[in-house]
Amino acid sequence: MNRLELFDRYRSLLFAIAYRMLGSVTDAEDIVQEAWIRWQHTESIVQSPKAFLSRIVTRLCIDYLRSARVQRERYTGTWLPEPLITERPDVEDCAELAESLSFAFLMLLECLSPTERAVFLLREVFDYEYDAISQTVDKSIPNCRQIVRRARQHLVLHRPTLANFDDRDLLVDRFLECWERGDLPGLMTLMAADVTFWSDGGGKVVAAQKPLQGCQKVARFLVAIRRSRLTPTLVSRVVAVNGQSGIMNIVDERTHSIFSFEWGGNRIQSIFAVVNPEKLGAVLEVSKP
């Protein structure tokens, strides 16, 4: 098997690691491309291509995050991950992997340092052994175990209970129906009392600078978007966003925004709206025939 065939065998895994580390489709693709270049120029014999390539990608992501963190602190308004249009898992066995793609999970990872994020993801999401993780991040095995334990405790404390996939799909369908009808009471019944609406315009387009909170306030805002003459007419449809049902809003056959959701039991706990066109590059043309 030649180098290209070996790399292609692990390409999807490398992208999966990079996307969860960075929360950006574009940056993850760039990292994978850089890993390919380094792989091509590797002269030594590699015993485990999977471990070797994973190490390259993880270290590149850590370096990128350390440099990007300053930029992110200067980000205008709320920072949200770049949407990834995906196929929803067909079985509940994939639930944990799908959850690790969710906006809510990726935003929780922002609370971890780049190294902590790498250790946690490699162990908890991708099931790497501690000795491989230790070599990847240049930390001792006991240190890596401690990082995972602390990160797990932190994330569990902030992670809401989840509805199953079928319930979530049904809720998104009902949400879109109520939203298109301008049904304020209907929307309110689908959301938790303390629901939060997050909007990421990145300073490129008009978007709420601060999160909106409260069932009535969020529902009124959503209905106003549909009714306002200043807002372009949206054509909305349910799509698979980051491993679960979300909503794509289309204007003039181009993607205007993407909605993703966080669940608290059988209610919508958070709505994440990405309207920054720089984060919609991968899906801008999706709606065209």
TrEMBL record:
Instruction: Give the RNA polymerase sigma factor 70 region 4 type domain ranges.
Output: 104-155
**RNA polymerase sigma-70 region domain mapped to chain residues:** 6-69
Top-rank lineage group of the source organism: Bacteria
Q: Name one GO molecular function term.
A: DNA binding
What Pfam families does its record include?
Sigma70_r2, Sigma70_r4_2
Q: Which Gene Ontology biological process is one annotated for this entry?
A: DNA-templated transcription initiation
- Subunit and interaction comment: Interacts transiently with the RNA polymerase catalytic core formed by RpoA, RpoB, RpoC and RpoZ (2 alpha, 1 beta, 1 beta' and 1 omega subunit) to form the RNA polymerase holoenzyme that can initiate transcription.
The family database entries (PANTHER family) matched by this protein are listed as: ECF RNA POLYMERASE SIGMA FACTOR SIGJ (PTHR30173:SF36), SIGMA 19 FACTOR (PTHR30173)
Name of the molecule in the record = RNA polymerase sigma-70 factor
Q: Which organism is it from?
A: Chamaesiphon polymorphus CCALA 037
